[in-house]
Amino acid sequence: MTGVMRGHGIVAAVVSAIVATELAAQQAPVVPQAPLQVTLQEAVRRALDVQPAMVQARGTQRNAGASGRSAWGAFLPTVTTSASAFRSNNATFVPGDTSRLPPVYSYSGGLNANIVLFDGFSRFANLRVASATADAAEAGFVNQRYQVAATTAQVFFTALANEELVRVAQAQVERARAELQTAVNKFQAGAATRSDTLTATVDLGNALLAALQAQANLATAEANLGRQIGVDQLVRAVPDSALPPLPDTTTLRASVLQAAPLVRQAEAQASVTSAQLWSTRGQYWPTVTLSYNNNRTGTQSPQLPLLNNYPETFSWRFGLSWTLFNGFSREQSQVAASVAHDVARAQAADTRLQVNAQYTQQLAALFTSWAQIAIAGADVAAATEAVRVQQERYRLGAGTLLDLLTAQANLTQAAVSQVQARYTYLIARAQLEAIVGHTL
């Protein structure tokens, strides 16, 4: 009788400890403000506005546009103007006389214009460089946009997956609590041993620990989502109720190898180096320039804007400059540009192979995860039924607690696999869209 009472006391103490731990686990963490809720489209839009990679890509586009305007501006003359007023405290002498003139102001104004008439076709090569640079910047912007969208989708779906895993962990806690209550009832009725109650207690403790870890993972995922979209608070991902079907990829590979943003960017970089190679060849040609200078100077008050009351001095100048030899510097520039062009072409070819390999990898991951969704769904249904059967067998005394715990663990693992399969599919789809360069 004393042993039975001692057993009841141990069970009661353990149950009290578990209940206290469970209440502590259920308390919501203190956060400075409620989580912001965003959909995937809203998260992508916010991320495209704040991610440093997108800011840099937009800046590269602006620089490319400025370079294009500068390349066109090289065909226009360079015009400068100047004006000055001068006064000294030294008196001046009248030429041919000994009389002195008091200090006066001296005014001057000038206009200078220069234009390059011929520079060995370098300006035309620079136009090609600017155009290719703009194309590379555009391709880089498109590629970066899809990369940021894919990264945002991955962070978004990770947050959703962790939210579902929290529910899976909570369901595991509820099942473990029910197991413990059943074991305690059977122990009190003399139909089970104290080992069953202690084993069920340990199982509930493990379930509570798993729930705490799931909540910590969810908080981390929501914080990462907040950082991705540029806010300093937790962000809850709002799920889409519809799971998109498998895309039609019958003729997709050929278009990917030709029009993928990464491929277009690499080919544009190769075009830039090709244009730069032509630009270096312009050093072998002469440069022809034309300049005009107009200058006016006087001591009377100037009549603006053209100082017409002053005598005019102007000059025209045609110039030709031709470097015949400069210590093989032109040859060195030519070789360096040729090497850069060869490297860029090799990188473009390798990029196409890289995109092909990545496309194959993500396509395999897409179809594999889609098949895993169906398999995981069937596993969850079978594991749920197995748990129901084992619970009934244990209640009637025909099964052991170990069989029930095994069935419970199988159900939890099946539910986790189902969540992982669903979001692995969505992440693989987003990664595939980033490679392709358009939505599927």
3D architecture notes:
With 440 residues, the protein is of the alpha+beta class. The chain has two domains: 2-76 and 120-285 and 326-436, Outer membrane efflux proteins (OEP); 78-118 and 287-321, Outer membrane efflux proteins (OEP) (Single Sheet), CATH 2.20.200. It is 67% helix and 13% strand. The protein has nine helices and eight strands. The protein has helices spanning 2-26, 40-50, 52-73, 122-188, 194-229, 252-259, 261-281, 329-396, 401-436; strands at residues 36-38, 78-87, 92-93, 100-101, 105-118, 235-237, 287-298, 312-321. The protein has a four-stranded antiparallel beta sheet with strand order 2-5-7-8, with no helix packed on it. A two-stranded parallel sheet has the order 1-6. The protein has a two-stranded antiparallel sheet with strand order 3-4. Strand 3 and strand 4 (100-101) form a beta hairpin. Helix 6 runs parallel beside helix 7 (261-281), helix 6 runs antiparallel to helix 8 and helix 7 runs antiparallel to helix 8 (329-396). The radius of gyration is 39 Å and the shape is elongated. 30% of the residues are buried. The model is unreliable at 1-7 and 27-32 (pLDDT under 50).
